Amino acid sequence: MADLVIQPSHGLRGTILLPGDKSLSHRAVLFSAIAEGDTIINGFLTGEDTQHTAKAVQALGIEVAGLGTERLVVHGKGLDGLSEPGEVLDLGNSGTGMRLLAGLLAGQNFFSVLSGDRYLRNRPMARIVQPLRQMGAFIDGRCGGKFAPLSIRGGGNAIRPIDYVSPVASAQVKSALLLAGLYANGTTSVREPSKSRDHTERMFRFFGLDVKEEGTTVTVRGRQRLRAKGPLDIPSDISSAAFFIVAASIVPGSEVTIQNVGVNPTRTGIVDVLLQMGGDISLHNRREQAGEPVADIRVRYCKLNAGRIEGAVIPRAIDEIPVLSVAASYAAGKTIIRDAAELRVKESDRISSMAVELRRMGVVVTELPDGMEITGRDVLDSAVCESHGDHRIAMSMAIAGLAARGDTVVRNTGWIDTSFPGFERILRRTAYSSS
């Protein structure tokens, strides 16, 4: 895999349009497959993760036109239109793809196997396997179903509704159970300790489903019909925008506008945290797109102050904690990140990975069981950094290098294409256009 060399930037400038939202792209192709009729999806993310999900849908007997492009046409066959795949469904590095597909396949009347790369095969799956078994699906895997590959014999007509109290706030767990619940006779409810991202609920409504929400409990009635509706326009991914939001916040002389970004309130923790740290961020041209709130985000450089990142904001910023730790490295004072133990079971142990890499750049980092303490500096040292096989670690360290004192090298950055194709091109155009 290629190395990425990052030189110091004298300021990020310009207007940026980023690829489509990864979470929405996964859901769009999956839900379109079980809808009745053709759905046009615009802005589909062409990253490796979402491509694996789209190919899995094809292997389940659904015609998907335009694969590899940002415009797909999915010829849905309705709730019972999927067919048994003749091959193992390879989800690559995508935990979202595997967990959501497991929920969908739990309601089928056929056999399937889900697998992925070595990193995905070591991510925890018991959190979805156990409740899906309670609903009547027969699922096995490594270590009794704790890890992929997962073999699934769906419950079919015997799938049972569930009233599940989730020990973690996880949109993937919630979505898997709601998808399985569509095949049950009765209502399925999922209650979380705090509200996780609600893309599934919003997109269910886009396809005409009745979804009820009360506090942190979501309920869906089984055997409802999804109806094709379109076009389904996917906004840019705030998790991708996060890298440029932080970059503009830490590099003096920066001012950027990121257009057409999804600003779902369950995903905007990155903005709230940086505003509390003194960031100069504003949202403009607010609107709605396929049931999702969208806006243009303007960011200007502003010296950040340390803060506490913990509690209810963590589920709203969990994927952005790595790049937020970069922001903390340039902030005045000591930033404390807590309640983020979930980061230890992502593509890498993101707490450990970021602590190791930031120390290479001279940052004082204390690793905690559920987070980090980070003492900020005015400028970081250049270093040779590792990606740890994790796209967000690779991109976070690239952003850290933009304000460092010399050239920073990030090794093995091919993982970036799993979620953000074109990252390096957009970064170079934005960070060095005025130099």
Explain how this protein is built.
The chain has helices at 22-33, 48-59, 95-106, 126-134, 142-145, 171-181, 199-206, 238-250, 269-276, 321-329, 350-360, 391-401, 423-431; strands at 4-6, 13-17, 35-42, 63-65, 71-77, 89-90, 111-115, 138-141, 147-153, 163-165, 187-191, 211-214, 217-221, 226-227, 232-233, 255-262, 280-289, 292-300, 308-309, 334-337, 364-368, 371-375, 384-386, 408-411. It folds into two domains: 4-20 and 235-431, Alpha-beta prism (UDP-n-acetylglucosamine1-carboxyvinyl-transferase, Chain), CATH 3.65.10; 22-221, Alpha-beta prism (UDP-n-acetylglucosamine1-carboxyvinyl-transferase, Chain). By secondary structure, it is of the alpha/beta class. The longest helix has 13 residues, at 238-250. It is built from 13 helices and 24 strands. Helix 1 (22-33) packs across helix 7. The strands form six sheets. Strands 3, 4, 5, 14 and 15 form a five-stranded mixed beta sheet that branches. It has a four-stranded mixed beta sheet with strand order 2-16-18-17. The chain has a four-stranded mixed beta sheet with strand order 6-7-9-8.
Share of residues in strands: 25-35%
Rg, rounded, reads 21 Å
DSSP E strands, number: 24
Mean pLDDT equals 96
Tell me the name of the CATH homologous superfamily of the largest domain. Answer: Enolpyruvate transferase domain
Q: Describe the largest sheet.
A: 5 strands, mixed
In CATH's first tier, which class of the largest domain applies?
Alpha Beta
Runs in which pLDDT lies below 50 for 5 or more consecutive residues are none
From the spread of the alpha carbons, the general shape counts as globular
